Every structure is written in structure tokens, then in C-alpha cells.
């Protein structure tokens, strides 16, 4: 059965169709478009209408547009609406309404995407599961995720993010989750908020979208837990708490054993053991919150624990990979996708705790959107206890220059303005046996450094993936 017939799409959007078509998927990017997709001509950095002809030539089943683009045949298969984004939102709302799936929404300052992927892995072994792709969590990513949802979906995992106040509630209302998880609240996007409490209130706005009888799964260990509790009470929703003590979902211990984190937890009075293919207590805490969501959705907890042990991270979010050099092999910790003070501290803890007798080397890039305290927050990393176990820290970006200056001289690597400047020095900075971390905000492009490290040798036949 098609994802969308022409008539269904017309009825959903109130648009006007050309041709007689149906589509099996939805795409916003001609580079990843699959034949049979509906191409959505969104306007962002570029006007998607400029790519409609290319999309149709590549096999798109139709295109969602607000006008007939130049170079497109007058009879081309199109769905013409007043506003393309509003048309996509309408498809998302109807797709959600026509589906009986149990839906979980995931938000939080840190850990959204990895927790979303954990949930998708656990639920996919218990029913037909649909989940957001990559970090599609904004004003177009959420409706796109919903519009792509097959009508026979049994579980859905929707990731919801924000940069500014007022963004989360409308997306949560579109998703209409049965369960909403807030992983944590941290000093992220402070340039748009007065304080962290303001961030907590914005994250808690996800509760506005909960279906009647829905469950909020909340982190009880964070300083802003009181804010979350207050909002949950105001919304009149049931709350399940996870954390390190006196919670329905309690993390008792988390220790690194070889290439995994072994965690002991108590769940509704029952003792359980979690095997997580990533290193660090923060991943164990996210996994605990994910397990609470599984239970709240009515899925089987024992099956979920088995599936959790088989989960692996995505590129740039803590994936671990062995790189073979002539002088031996190095272990690369690729956490290059994003960074904030909380996740940076956690990454340094993982680097310090990773088993191995070689040097520990870090490439740290600027943390963006931290507001007026950005310099102090970068400088403060020099005082993090895990820095004691790191042998050398190279810093990338103008803000990280402040960390570089604050580091003990013995640990100071080189400061660089950009990631591209690092590449020429990699052969002399890294040696066999090293454990190497790359971590920074996406705009600093530490992925270039990750690729440069890979190019020093050749990847092992079976990369170790553990986030």
C-alpha cells in the first residue's frame, strides 16, 4: 500500500493536484531521494523549488510545491499548496491521526538522538517501529517524521528539539505522544534564555502534547527537577521519575567492563542489569529513561533489555573505531556531532575511563550558543577532574583558545583557529596505542579531524560501535 495516494494528500492539505500519482516515501533532499518519493520543496538556505525538476528527473513520484517551478512541465505530478511547510505539517497531522501507533517523544538538552536510537532499537524487536531520521527534530523535521509514518506503525519515536522559546509545544502537539521523555536539562542555547530554569520550562512544554492518560518520564537528578515537577503538576499528567536514588527507575551503579557499560538498576522494585555498548554512566542513565518509556508504552521490559545490549551508536555521537597505523592501532572516540558543557564533561569522563595503556589525546572544538558566560564555561573545562587523566588536549576555535590558555602546560597541545588547520599536524600528534577523542559543536567541523585520523591508516575490519 502506498504511503500517500494523490487523493489522500489533497484531502490532507487542501491543495490542488496535477497528474495521477501515489508516493511511497517523502524526501526534502535530492541527494537522498528514492524513486517514488514525494519531494517537498522547502525553503531554507536554498529554495527547494529550484530542485523540483532534478527531483522529478531522479524518479520522484510527485513534488509538494507552492507554485509550478521553472523548467517543470505544466503537467508534471505536483501537489500545489499555499505554503509548503504548512502542507508538510498537514500531512504529518493526518498521518498521525490515521495511525494507531503508540508514540513516544524525546527531548532534552543532551542525549536526545542517542536515546531516540536506543528506543527505536528496543521497540523494533516488539512491533513495527518508525523513528525520526538523524536529528530531524525541528519545525520541519518533526512533521517530516510524522508524514513519513506508515499507517501500520505500532510504535513511533519522535525527537523534538529547540533553539528558542516557544518551539517545543507546537511540535509536541503535532506528535501527540503517549509518553514524553526529558533526558536532561543543561546550559545549552543560553543565548536565547535568561537561565537554565527557562530552558527547563521550554523542555517541559513537550508535556502539552501528551495524549489523555499520557506519561511524562522525567530526570530526577538534575537541578531543575523541581521545574519539571511543577509543570507536570500544572498539566495534570502522570510522572515517572528516573535517577540515582529514590526513583521508580533507579540507577544503582554503572561500571565500565571492557567495551561496555554494565549497569545495575532497580525498576519498580525489581532489580535489573543493563548491558550498554557505550562507555559512561550518562548513557546508562539515558538507557534507564528509555526503559521507563518502553514500560509506559506497554512493551515488554525483558525483551527491551535484550535489544538494548545489541544497540550501537550513530556516526559522530560516540562511535568507537579502531584505526590501524604502522606503529600499532589507535582507538578513536568520534563524538564530533555536537557539544555543550554537560556532554563535553561526559565525553572527557569516557576518555579518562576507557581501558588502555596508551596516551589519551583530545581534540576539543568550540561549544556554541552558550550566551554571555561562554568564555567562563570553556575555561572551566580545565578544572574538570577527568582532565587529570588526559595526556594532551588540542583546542580548535576562538572560544577553545580560553581553555587552551587555562590548561596545565604539560597537557597543552596546539590551538587552532579551524579544524582544517589540524590535518597537516595529525601524523606527528597521534601514535599507535593512543585513545583519541574528537568533540565539538557541529559548526566547528571536527568531522574533518575524524576523517583525517581515519586516513592515517585503515579502519579495522570490524569497527567497535558503542554509544
UniProtKB/TrEMBL annotation:
<dbReference type="GO" id="GO:0008766">
    <property type="term" value="F:UDP-N-acetylmuramoylalanyl-D-glutamyl-2,6-diaminopimelate-D-alanyl-D-alanine ligase activity"/>
</dbReference>
<dbReference type="InterPro" id="IPR035911">
    <property type="entry name" value="MurE/MurF_N"/>
</dbReference>
<keyword id="KW-0573">Peptidoglycan synthesis</keyword>
<comment type="function">
    <text>Involved in cell wall formation. Catalyzes the final step in the synthesis of UDP-N-acetylmuramoyl-pentapeptide, the precursor of murein.</text>
</comment>
<keyword id="KW-0547">Nucleotide-binding</keyword>
<keyword id="KW-0132">Cell division</keyword>
<comment type="similarity">
    <text>Belongs to the MurCDEF family. MurF subfamily.</text>
</comment>
<dbReference type="InterPro" id="IPR036615">
    <property type="entry name" value="Mur_ligase_C_dom_sf"/>
</dbReference>
<dbReference type="GO" id="GO:0071555">
    <property type="term" value="P:cell wall organization"/>
</dbReference>
<dbReference type="InterPro" id="IPR013221">
    <property type="entry name" value="Mur_ligase_cen"/>
</dbReference>
<dbReference type="InterPro" id="IPR036565">
    <property type="entry name" value="Mur-like_cat_sf"/>
</dbReference>
<dbReference type="GO" id="GO:0005524">
    <property type="term" value="F:ATP binding"/>
</dbReference>
<protein>
    <recommendedName>
        <fullName>UDP-N-acetylmuramoyl-tripeptide--D-alanyl-D-alanine ligase</fullName>
        <ecNumber>6.3.2.10</ecNumber>
    </recommendedName>
</protein>
<keyword id="KW-0961">Cell wall biogenesis/degradation</keyword>
<dbReference type="GO" id="GO:0009252">
    <property type="term" value="P:peptidoglycan biosynthetic process"/>
</dbReference>
<dbReference type="Pfam" id="PF08245">
    <property type="entry name" value="Mur_ligase_M"/>
</dbReference>
<keyword id="KW-0131">Cell cycle</keyword>
<dbReference type="InterPro" id="IPR005863">
    <property type="entry name" value="UDP-N-AcMur_synth"/>
</dbReference>
<dbReference type="InterPro" id="IPR000713">
    <property type="entry name" value="Mur_ligase_N"/>
</dbReference>
<dbReference type="InterPro" id="IPR051046">
    <property type="entry name" value="MurCDEF_CellWall_CoF430Synth"/>
</dbReference>
<comment type="pathway">
    <text>Cell wall biogenesis; peptidoglycan biosynthesis.</text>
</comment>
<feature type="domain" description="Mur ligase central">
    <location>
        <begin position="106"/>
        <end position="294"/>
    </location>
</feature>
<keyword id="KW-0436">Ligase</keyword>
<dbReference type="Pfam" id="PF01225">
    <property type="entry name" value="Mur_ligase"/>
</dbReference>
<keyword id="KW-0133">Cell shape</keyword>
<keyword id="KW-0067">ATP-binding</keyword>
<dbReference type="GO" id="GO:0008360">
    <property type="term" value="P:regulation of cell shape"/>
</dbReference>
<dbReference type="InterPro" id="IPR004101">
    <property type="entry name" value="Mur_ligase_C"/>
</dbReference>
<dbReference type="GO" id="GO:0051301">
    <property type="term" value="P:cell division"/>
</dbReference>
<feature type="domain" description="Mur ligase C-terminal">
    <location>
        <begin position="328"/>
        <end position="441"/>
    </location>
</feature>
<feature type="binding site">
    <location>
        <begin position="108"/>
        <end position="114"/>
    </location>
    <ligand>
        <name>ATP</name>
    </ligand>
</feature>
<dbReference type="GO" id="GO:0005737">
    <property type="term" value="C:cytoplasm"/>
</dbReference>
<dbReference type="Pfam" id="PF02875">
    <property type="entry name" value="Mur_ligase_C"/>
</dbReference>
<dbReference type="GO" id="GO:0047480">
    <property type="term" value="F:UDP-N-acetylmuramoyl-tripeptide-D-alanyl-D-alanine ligase activity"/>
</dbReference>
<feature type="domain" description="Mur ligase N-terminal catalytic">
    <location>
        <begin position="23"/>
        <end position="95"/>
    </location>
</feature>
<keyword id="KW-0963">Cytoplasm</keyword>
Amino acid at each position: 500500500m502506498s504511503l500517500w495516494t494523490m487523493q489522500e494528500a489533497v484531502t490532507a492539505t487542501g491543495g490542488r493536484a496535477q497528474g495521477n500519482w501515489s508516493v511511497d516515501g517523502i524526501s526534502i533532499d535530492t541527494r537522498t531521494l528514492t524513486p517514488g518519493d514525494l519531494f517537498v520543496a522547502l525553503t531554507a538556505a536554498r529554495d527547494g523549488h529550484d530542485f523540483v525538476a532534478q527531483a522529478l528527473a531522479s524518479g520522484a513520484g510527485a513534488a509538494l510545491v507552492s507554485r509550478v517551478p521553472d523548467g517543470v512541465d505544466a503537467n508534471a505530478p505536483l501537489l500545489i499548496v499555499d505554503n509548503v511547510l504548512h502542507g508538510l505539517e498537514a500531512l504529518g497531522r493526518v498521518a498521525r491521526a490515521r495511525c494507531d501507533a503508540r508514540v513516544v517523544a524525546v527531548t532534552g538538552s543532551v542525549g536526545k538522538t542517542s536515546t531516540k536510537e536506543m528506543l527505536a532499537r528496543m521497540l523494533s524487536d516488539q512491533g513495527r517501529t518508525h523513528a525520526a531520521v538523524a536529528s530531524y527534530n525541528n519545525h520541519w523535521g518533526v512533521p517530516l517524521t510524522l508524514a513519513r509514518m506508515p499507517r501500520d506503525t505500532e510504535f513511533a519515536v519522535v525527537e523534538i528539539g529547540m533553539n528558542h522559546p516557544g518551539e517545543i509545544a507546537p511540535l509536541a502537539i503535532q506528535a501527540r505522544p503517549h509518553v514524553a521523555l526529558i533526558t536532561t536539562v543543561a546550559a545549552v542555547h543560553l543565548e536565547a534564555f535568561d537561565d537554565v530554569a527557562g530552558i527547563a520550562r521550554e523542555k517541559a512544554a513537550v508535556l502539552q502534547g501528551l495524549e489523555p492518560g499520557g506519561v511524562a518520564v522525567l530526570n530526577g537528578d538534575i537541578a531543575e527537577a523541581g521545574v519539571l515537577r511543577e509543570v507536570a503538576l500544572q498539566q495534570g499528567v502522570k510522572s515517572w521519575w528516573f535517577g540515582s536514588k529514590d526513583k521508580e527507575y533507579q540507577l544503582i551503579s554503572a561500571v565500565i567492563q571492557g567495551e561496555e557499560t554494565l549497569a545495575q538498576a532497580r525498576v519498580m522494585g525489581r532489580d535489573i542489569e543493563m548491558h550498554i555498548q557505550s562507555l559512561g554512566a550518562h548513557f546508562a542513565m539515558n538507557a534507564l529513561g528509555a526503559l521507563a518509556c518502553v514500560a509506559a508504552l506497554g512493551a515488554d521490559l525483558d525483551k527491551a533489555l535484550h535489544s538494548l545490549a545489541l544497540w550501537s551508536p550513530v556516526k559522530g555521537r560516540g562511535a568507537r573505531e579502531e584505526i590501524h597505523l604502522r606503529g600499532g592501532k589507535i582507538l578513536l572516540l568520534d563524538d564530533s556531532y555536537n557539544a555543550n558543557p554537560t556532554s563535553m564533561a561526559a565525553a572527557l569522563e569516557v576518555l579518562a575511563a576507557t581501558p588502555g595503556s596508551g596516551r589519551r589525546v583530545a581534540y576539543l572544538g568550540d561549544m556554541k550558543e552558550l550566551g554571555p558566560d561562554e568564555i567562563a564555561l570553556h575555561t572551566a573545562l580545565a578544572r574538570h577532574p577527568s582532565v587529570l587523566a588526559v595526556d594532551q588536549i588540542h583546542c580548535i576555535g576562538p572560544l577553545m583558545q580560553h581553555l587552551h590558555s587555562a590548561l596545565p602546560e604539560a597537557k597543552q597541545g596546539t590551538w587552532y583557529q579551524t579544524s582544517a588547520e589540524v590535518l597537516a599536524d595529525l601524523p606527528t600528534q597521534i601514535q599507535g596505542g593512543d585513545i583519541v577523542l574528537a568533540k565539538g559543536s557541529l559548526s566547528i567541523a571536527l568531522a574533518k579531524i575524524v576523517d583525517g585520523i581515519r586516513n592515517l591508516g585503515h579502519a579495522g575490519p570490524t569497527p567497535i560501535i558503542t554509544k
